[in-house]
Write a structure and sequence with these properties.
The complex is a heterodimer. Chain A is α+β, with helices and mostly antiparallel strands. Chain A has ten helices and 18 strands. Chain A has two domains: 228 residues, Glutamine Phosphoribosylpyrophosphate, subunit 1, domain 1 (4-Layer Sandwich), CATH 3.60.20; 92 residues, Alpha-Beta Plaits. In chain A, a hairpin with a 2-residue loop joins strand 11 and strand 12. The chains are: A alpha+beta, B alpha/beta.
Chain lengths: 357, 504
């Protein structure tokens, strides 16, 4: 069990973090204090073209891991700016690890021939994550993740997320059941600009992980969130599939429906990407720099409610968060299992099964 | 002198004369026993009348259980012969084999079915996971549960086309059993059941009888080293073609169908003269390397205009993982791996008991190797050899198989009691014989019904197991080794299987 909230303004109007702190706070029962976190998009407009790396180092500012990570980074990227992420310790949380953020530009000469810039950055993230005491919390452009071990509102205060402004926010309240809680293991989980908050426990984990490993993704955290982010990244970035197809692959139609529709595309996608099917209960909000995707498992075994008020879309594990954010939404509905709600920035939401309340 | 030694039978029937109806002339057991173990002996009844009661000859019983099952009065049971060895190392069985060889003209001991040795059955050491609290199990009676599989080459991503596929409504196919080894009735029952359920049967290496060609859409034809029955029509009459390199019951050796079993129909189907021995050489005479295999794969693809997938079947041997990788790169669409428990109509005892490796280990290491090379999805892996129940099927899938072949369970469905005398042509159930009077014991429709029931029952059990694990689509279980834990295996076994020990 976990709690998730997403706020997406399709006009890219900036909202400060105080609002989402409140929205996730009232879902306190959905977590147990072992993890909370926030993702924000649009927070670094002055560095919008640089990769913003939030890196967590075990230990304090004297950790030897910092030097080894930075030495490695300098071999691959131009460090435009490097600074501590300010934290504001309080008595509801133990002291966390040390956080720094870097604004980076890949050095083209060091890239492999035919290697894409994003592929190069992913490779850098994977290498850093393999170093002891180093963990890349987020690595996208003009976005960042703040997370740690504690209730989300306490994490929010630790980083003072009300000081950050973004047009797309997600929040997560964690109730870990599989992996022990630690600062890096909190959600959202990200790779490049993609971030996932997730409620569920996927039963296809082993199949998914072993498939991803074939393509150079190594799942070090052993969390479902990590796996879903990588599947999405693989499908959209490496294979160039649309968001809709990527969602379909993760939660495909029944063979019976595919037979009835005589859909060759649907059949082919399911045949090729059988190992990327995500089984078991899940409700996720997957965000990227162009928008957000809200997706439920095929059997709808986890709650997700969506709503819209003007150009702001909401997604939440519980309706109360949405009502708290906007008492009079224009539209509120519970998406059907397996049918994605896709919100593109400056575009309309799609998604069947919408229902006015 | 040794000529006077009695042959020591391992089993014999005993008759409960209180139940036996011999006084009214019942002789069913005598006629049912095709091995000649049961005869009649006169006894005096009340009033001096002479009756004939059944009598065990103590010479030919194989414990096939036919007489037991057919006796209308439940008056028979089979017992082991009480021969014991005083020597712990020299068992009656080991001495018996030597006696048999010493008294024959130096013959190779032949047996049927799969290996019987004490090697570990890994399936029994693997336990499934189930959902509790943190995620819900799925009730297959209420929610859709999908066990359909598509077999065949798939590209690693979109862009390239998907190769020809076999659609299976259950992840189970009938393994190769040739016409000659089994009779046409058994093959027709397999074909009927495969078509009704939506899966495939395999002709084995004995050709594809004209009568069964109507089931071509559910048939896999084999090309083995003897090339029996192979022609352009043959290749194009089926849904897939399988090159048989080896089988688990006799890795590395060929086959031998004795001339007595080569009847007119067998001769026509195999395209060999009647009454001649049908010999399959140990290697294919045109395959001495992986390059040669590639040529044959593509020769078949050319002949079938790339319409059907080409499978390569090998026995599970020590180096199975790199061999499988080589076969995948040579262009095979499906690779069938047959573990050392796999059955056969006839094999030398020493080969059956001592060659090859267990399918569980073979499929796990082959799957792992294909993944390390990044080519797992380009090929379908079929596991076979020793699968005894639906949970074995699902465990094989969790270890990395896409689907399985079963053949011994087919025979057992038809009555087989695993007496291991398939090569004798005397099968009391009429399965592995073409002998008139015996083959008719198989009723095609009844047999087909039994096989349909088997597939249906296993399919339902697989759905139950999946539901308990919170899985609604079987592709989410393939190579999902996370959902297995081992009980009582050592670290090396765990490493090869790629699973954790229970509790870990």
């Amino acid at each position: 069990m976990c709690g998730i909230v997403g706020i997406i303004n399709t006009d890219r109007r900036l909202i400060d973090g105080g609002l989402i702190r409140e929205a996730i706070r009232i879902q306190r029962d959905r977590g147990n204090g072992l993890g909370g976190g926030f993702a924000v998009y649009g927070c670094y407009p002055e560095h919008r073209n640089d990769y913003a790396f939030h890196i967590m180092y075990e230990g304090d500012r004297n950790s030897p891991a910092i030097q080894s990570a930075e030495t490695y980074l300098k071999q691959r990227m131009l460090i435009v700016r490097s600074e501590e992420i300010p934290v504001y310790p309080h008595d509801r949380l133990p002291r966390g690890p040390y956080f720094r953020r870097y604004f980076l530009r890949p050095i083209e000469e060091y890239m492999q021939p035919h290697q894409s810039e994003e592929g190069y950055v992913v490779e850098t993230v994977m290498a850093l994550n393999k170093m002891p005491d180093v963990f890349v919390v987020s690595s996208g452009k003009n976005m960042g993740v703040f997370k740690g071990m504690g209730f989300p509102e306490d994490i929010a205060d630790y980083f003072r997320i009300e000081d950050y402004r973004g047009y797309l926010w997600t929040a997560h309240n964690r109730f870990p059941t599989n992996t022990p809680g630690w600062w890096g293991g909190a959600h959202p989980f990200t790779i490049l600009d993609k971030a996932v908050v997730h409620n569920g426990e996927i039963t296809s984990y082993g199949t998914n992980v072993r498939w991803l490993e074939m393509f150079g993704y190594f799942c070090l955290l052993k969390t479902d969130t990590e796996v879903i982010s990588y599947i999405y990244d693989k499908l959209t970035r490496q294979d160039g599939l649309s968001t809709k197809d990527a969602c379909y692959i993760m939660a495909p139609s029944l063979w019976e429906e595919i037979d009835r529709e005589k859909s060759v595309t649907k059949r082919t996608l399911r045949q090729i990407y059988g190992s990327a099917i995500v089984n078991g209960p899940f409700g996720i909000v997957l965000t990227h720099d162009g928008g957000a995707i809200i997706l439920n498992d095929r059997n709808k075994l986890r709650p997700v409610v969506c709503a819209r008020k003007d150009n702001t879309y909401y997604a939440s594990s519980e309706e109360c968060s949405i009502r708290l954010l906007s008492a009079r939404v224009d539209d509120i509905w519970s998406p059907r299992g397996g049918e994605p709600v896709i919100v593109d920035l400056q575009e309309e939401a799609t998604g069947e099964g919408r229902r006015k309340k | 002198m040794i000529e006077n030694w009695k042959t020591i039978p391992a089993f014999h029937p005993t008759f409960d004369l209180g139940r036996c109806d011999y006084e009214n002339g019942c002789t069913i057991c005598v006629h049912e026993c095709s091995f000649g173990e049961i005869s009649l002996t006169p006894v005096k009844g009340t009033g001096g009348a002479v009756h004939y009661r059944p009598w065990a000859n103590l010479s030919a019983c194989n414990a096939c259980q036919r007489c037991v099952k057919m006796c209308p009065h439940t008056a028979i049971h089979i017992v082991s012969h009480p021969m014991v060895s005083s020597h712990g190392y020299w068992t009656a069985e080991k001495m018996g084999n030597i006696w048999r060889q010493a008294r024959s003209a130096g013959g190779v001991l032949l047996v049927g079915t799969g290996a019987t040795g004490p090697q570990r059955r890994y399936f029994d050491h693997l336990m499934f996971d189930a959902c509790q609290v943190t995620n819900p199990s799925i009730d297959p009676l209420r929610e859709p549960m999908e066990i359909r599989r598509y077999l065949g080459r798939k590209p690693l991503g979109v862009g390239e086309p998907v190769g020809p596929q076999l659609k299976l409504e259950v992840p189970i196919m009938f393994g190769a059993m040739s016409f000659g080894a089994v009779n046409l009735r058994v093959q027709e029952a397999e074909a009927l059941a495969a078509r009704a359920v939506g899966t495939f049967w395999n002709t084995g290496e004995g050709g594809f009888h004209e009568k069964l060609r109507q089931y071509g859409g559910n048939t896999i034809v084999q090309v083995a080293s003897g090339r029996f029955g192979v022609s352009e029509d043959y290749l194009n009459a089926a849904a897939a073609v399988e090159i048989k390199i080896g089988q688990g019951a006799k890795p590395g050796i060929g086959g031998h169908l004795p001339g007595e079993k080569v009847s007119e129909a067998v001769s026509r189907t195999r395209m060999i003269p009647m009454g001649t021995d049908a010999l399959s050489p140990a290697p294919h005479h045109d395959i001495y390397s992986i390059e040669d295999l590639r040529q044959l794969i593509y020769a078949i693809k050319e002949s079938t205009e790339y319409r059907v997938p080409v499978s390569v079947k090998i026995a599970a041997v020590h180096n199975v993982a790199p061999i499988v990788s080589g076969i995948a790169r040579a262009g095979a669409d499906l690779i069938a791996i047959d573990g050392f428990r796999g059955g056969t109509g006839a094999t030398p005892l020493q080969i059956r008991q001592n060659t090859g490796i267990p399918i569980e280990l073979a499929v796990a290491s082959a799957d792992q190797r294909l993944r390390e090379e990044g080519i797992r999805d380009t090929v379908t892996l079929i596991a076979s050899g020793g699968i005894q129940c639906s949970s074995d099927v699902l465990k094989a899938i969790c270890l990395g198989a896409d689907a399985v072949y079963v053949a011994s369970p087919v025979l057992v469905s038809l009555g087989c009691g695993m007496c291991q005398r398939c090569f004798s042509g005397k099968c009391a159930y009429g399965i592995t014989t073409n002998r008139p009077g015996l083959a008719e014991r198989i009723d095609v429709d009844e047999a087909a019904e039994a096989l349909k029931n088997l597939l249906h029952a296993w399919g339902e059990e697989i759905k139950e197991l999946m539901g308990s694990m919170g899985i609604s689509a079987i592709e989410a279980l393939r190579s999902n080794r996370d959902r297995l834990r081992a009980v009582g295996l050592n670290e090396e076994e765990l490493r090869v299987l790629g699973i954790k020990h229970a509790g870990a």
